[in-house]
Design brief:
The chain is an alpha+beta fold. It has three domains: about 35 residues; about 200 residues, Distorted Sandwich (Coagulation Factor XIII, Chain A, domain 1); about 100 residues, Sandwich (Immunoglobulin-like), CATH 2.60.40.290. The protein contains seven helices and 18 strands.
């Protein structure tokens, strides 16, 4: 074989190796993007908030004085922000307290080889002002849905600026059960989102909202710390708040395994609504999620052909359900009837305008039918 021919063959073999390697790298990158998941976007979790505020300017030294906790996080590991959708652990099997030690709740127990460790750093993180009747918005980029989502709030007296977070500092204030992604809200950036309500009665000042999301496709558990100040109003959570990453995040791919069974009950259809009367208002009900003995509902209130300044919705249940927590309305219950009155930030509605209030409820047996609603302007 001539030297020239051998050289040509070596060059061709080298080109083939490079091409195969390129395809493998591209396939791996695409697999990581496809395996991406999500985060709490409102009130924003620590790493999502740092990415949202500084992702396009993360080398700006002004961050050190304007947002020092985010600054230390970016310095510790920028990938914790670029991979805002990958803060999870695998194989926890529901034993969250056993898998994650106190002081490591915000990093999911130093998950992903310590990528998110800076999320546990105690200090004055940027906090969002919210009301004690609130909801968290979870954005699921890969549309995997949830076996369950649990929302906790730190107990009154806990100081997140000076104390590390432990399980004993938390109180469960809201949850939903098995909720397929098809029941979530589609987002323009791709993926879906869902809101989970909570009531933090008696809370004032600085706190941490801690969310545990058990994704449905694998035994993957996600853990999010959101810094808040109670005493404000619940922020707007419109779809426009959904993330649109400036560069592709890449959560580490995980081996495929069948999802664990869940004793969930399918959600029933929402109640039909009629057009708002002139000068009045109408209300329609949606069942957002359901699990054995509990559910999350939402009522949409729409003004008629003229503006209203306040509204009251009467919710009459047919199967003995009870509202246990609510947000964006003041709810009182008498027997099978609940009365929801507007609050300051959603009382006034222009002609044809709408608002919503949400709640967690309980029921017994297998029936969880839609309620009968009446709406009146007040």
């Amino acid at each position: 074989m001539s030297t020239t021919l051998a050289a040509r063959r070596r060059a061709a073999l080298y080109a083939l190796i490079v091409a195969v390697a390129s395809v493998l790298l591209l396939t791996t990158a695409l697999a990581k993007i496809a395996d991406a998941h999500g985060n709490i976007v409102s009130p924003a979790s620590r790493n999502y908030g740092c990415w949202q505020r500084w992702g396009s300017d993360f080398q700006n030294p002004a961050m050190a004085t304007q947002d020092p906790m985010c600054w230390q996080a970016w310095q510790a590991n920028p990938n914790a922000m670029w991979n805002w959708n990958g803060l999870f652990r695998e194989g926890v099997a529901g034993n969250h307290q056993g898998a994650i030690p106190d002081g490591q709740l915000c990093s999911a127990g130093h998950t992903e080889s310590g990528r998110y460790n800076a999320m546990d750093t105690v200090g004055d993180w940027k906090a969002q002002s919210i009301g004690t009747n609130f909801s968290v918005k979870l954005y699921d980029q890969a549309s995997h849905g949830a076996d369950y989502i649990r929302v906790y709030v730190t107990k009154q007296g806990f100081n997140p600026i000076t104390q590390p977070l432990g399980w004993g500092n938390l109180e469960l204030v809201g949850q939903i059960g098995n909720t397929p992604a098809a029941q979530w809200t589609p987002e323009s950036a791709g993926g879906v989102s869902i809101q989970v309500g909570g009531t933090a009665s008696g809370r004032t000042g600085r706190h941490i909202v801690y969310t545990v999301w058990q994704a449905s496709h694998l035994d993957q558990s996600y853990y999010f710390c959101s810094d808040v100040t109670f005493g404000g109003v619940t922020p707007s959570q419109s779809p426009s708040a959904s993330p649109s990453p400036s560069r592709p995040p890449s959560a580490s791919p995980s081996p495929s395994r069948p999802p664990s069974p869940s004793p969930s009950v399918s959600a029933s259809p929402s109640a039909p609504s009629s057009p708002p009367p002139p000068g009045g208002c109408s209300a329609s009900y949606s069942l957002l999620g359901q699990w054995p003995g509990g559910f999350q509902g939402e009522v949409k209130v729409t003004a008629g052909s003229s503006a209203i300044t306040k509204w009251t919705v009467t919710v009459t249940w047919t199967n003995g359900q009870q509202i246990t927590n609510s947000w964006n309305a003041t709810v009182t219950t008498s027997g099978s009837t609940a009365t929801a009155k507007s609050v300051a930030h959603n009382s006034a509605l222009g002609a044809g305008a709408s608002t919503t209030f949400g709640f967690l409820g309980s029921y017994t047996g297998s029936a969880n039918g839609a309620p009968t609603l009446t709406c009146s302007p007040t």
